[in-house]
Design goal:
alpha+beta; YefM-like fold; 3-stranded mixed β-sheet; 4 helices; 3 strands; 68% helix; 12% strand; elongated; YefM-like_sf; Antitoxin
Amino acid sequence: MGAIPFSRFCKNPSKVFGEVVDRDKPVTVTCADGKDVIIIPATEFESWKETAHLLRSPKNAKRLRESVAEIEAEIARRKR
């Protein structure tokens, strides 16, 4: 769906909500005043909150970066 004007959203909000959830993709609702809104599935929002929580602590963020680097190094090693 991508982006839709506010007027289209107002005509059938439940359809837009259903498409957002069914496709698991965000939709931008554009407004004439430029104050656009993004609608995302609740599961995606919860994932964002969890990621923000995990990265809030510098110590935890460092451990996560190190873990990702280890996984990426292992994947690269296996591809050789």
